[in-house]
Amino acid sequence: MLRVTEEPAVLITRDEQDPAVAVLTLNRPARYNALTLALKQALVAAIVELSATTDVRALVLTGAGRAFCVGQELGEHAEELRRRGADGHPGRAFDTVAEHYNPIVSGLADLPFPVVAAVNGPCAGAGLGFAMACDLRVAAAGTKFSPAFTGIGLTADSGLSASLAHAVGVPRALELLLLGEPFTAEQAQAWGMVREVVASEEVLEAALALARRLAAGPTSAYVEVRRGVRFGAVHDLAAVLAEEGAAQARLAATEDHARAVEDFLAKRRPTFHGR
């Protein structure tokens, strides 16, 4: 069980069963992991740190306490808005999108290993964007997801305009973002957004089990699969075929591929080392 404190703003730990699996925990449980400046800065730094770590082969992203992340800390946002100039310009209130949300989402999406979101409770706004930036999601039964943005007069950020559309299709993504209505983990699973729904006390272990499975696999191939699927969602067939060919050529040079072919021919279960 992870130690829950108010400091530091994020925790990076290793799975006791498999040290190749890291756990990144948002750590403001008293505020449902709402995103303050300090938490966002710590999350950016943690993702940069993890991206440079050579012995991690899978990551679980989760929240401390009863929530995953309910999005921006609106009290802090309101303080920034009150500083707006006489011309009505919102000052630096929205600089956080470029300085924090975008690097967090792109950082999670581009980590050199798979990422599993353990959605242990309420998941809203940018928190939903962070969960959707992960490769796979496990959620607690009954958990509420909420786009939330139009409820405060905003449009989506944190990549949700694309990630929701790719996950559930354009019509449903428009419905979710326009109406801002909460939906459950069970609905998210039915729509294909969530792989597994389990009891709340089982979420982290279920996500860790999935991450352990991924950590034992061909890490470079997983990264290419991720890149290929995202590329394929927005390019024509000719471009996709060319990109797939280039990806196969990159993987052909990996030790994992060469060993797996030998294992297959020898009728052995392949063992991958992430190289």
Task: Report on the architecture of this protein.
The strands form 2 sheets. Strands 1-2-3-4-6-9 form a 6-stranded mixed sheet, with helices on both faces. A 3-stranded mixed sheet has the order 5-7-8. With 275 residues, the protein is of the alpha/beta class. The longest helix is centred in the last third of the chain and has 16 residues. The protein has 11 helices and 9 strands. The protein has 2 domains: 206 residues, 2-enoyl-CoA Hydratase, Chain A, domain 1, CATH 3.90.226.10; 47 residues. The protein is globular. The N terminus is likely disordered. Helix 1 runs parallel beside helix 3 and helix 3 runs parallel beside helix 4.
How would the blueprint of this fold be written?
Blueprint: E1 10-14, E2 21-26, H1 37-51, E3 58-63, H2 74-82, H3 95-109, E4 115-119, E5 123-124, H4 126-133, E6 136-140, E7 144-146, H5 160-168, H6 170-179, E8 183-184, H7 185-190, E9 196-198, H8 203-215, H9 219-232, H10 237-252, H11 255-265
Parallel strand pairs: 2-3, 3-4, 4-6, 5-7, 6-9
Antiparallel strand pairs: 1-2, 7-8
Helix pairs in contact: 1-3, 3-4, 5-6, 9-10
Compute the gyration radius: what is it?
20 Å
Query: Pairing-aware structural class of the strands and helices?
Result: alpha/beta
Query: Main sheet?
Result: 6 strands, mixed
Specify the CATH homologous superfamily of the largest domain. Answer: 2-enoyl-CoA Hydratase, Chain A, domain 1
Strand content: 5-15%
Shape descriptor = globular
Total domain modules? 2
Number-wise, the strands total 9
Widest β-sheet, arrangement of strands: 1-2-3-4-6-9
Poorly predicted runs of 5 or more residues = 1-5
Quick check: average pLDDT? Answer: 92
How many H/I helices? 11
- The topology string of helices and strands comes to EEHEHHEEHEEHHEHEHHHH
How far is the first residue's CA from the last residue's CA? 31 Å
* CATH class value of the largest domain: Alpha Beta
